[in-house]
Amino acid sequence: MDDDLFEDRLAQSRPATATRRPDLDVALRAMVEDAEATSRAIRPRRRATAGITAAAVMALVIGGGGVAVASGLVAWPVGYEDPDGAYSFTLPSGRACEVRLIIGGSEGGEDPSAEMDRSTDAETQHALQEEVAQWLRDGALDRDLDLPTAEAEVAAIYDDQAAAGMTVLIGTEGWLEDAASAPGRPDADDARAFAVDRAVRTAMTEHLEDRGFPETSWTFSSDGGVKCAGE
Hints:
This protein is an alpha+beta fold. The chain has one domain (3-228). The chain is 30% helix and 19% strand. The strands form three sheets. It has a four-stranded antiparallel β-sheet with strand order 2-8-5-4. Strands 1-3 form a two-stranded antiparallel ribbon. The longest helix has 23 residues, at 188-210. 41% of the residues are buried.
């Protein structure tokens, strides 16, 4: 495989990235990275501001509320009770997982690595944020996910990553994370969770494109992601 293509595949495989806030507010960064960006490993209590560029892959979603979420098998940190979007699914093993997404504002600064259009005004940024949040509240995660395509992409990414000894797994606390390959991992559960993560990224990106938002204006803060029940 061409080295550039290999590096591109590795970059695109990164799941959402997370950091611990001083005030212990629990939030998980929605991460958007371009094809050459290097991401950090996930930890569950993080926050950051993300910029989405043309080559970006988006990972995921605390800020405003939107949909009612029933208490289930997946234990979420405080602050995820009223997400803008939610999606429940079951892994091949029967383990329960959820996506909870909340779209916030551009608080906390900008991503210095993102190539964004600095001329985009606050009104456009607010419209972008509201567009994504409303799309989620209208049931996008139950309607717009192309899981078969995402599963095929994940299979190709896992094949490429095997040579580097790195992969994407469900971590000990239930979040997706970058990790070293291990005997028997990634398994079917890891692949399903990763595919859902990618399907959400793709659906959000396609929605923004369809609504006519310039790719260089895709900037907002978002927190959350895929989380699975304890084993």
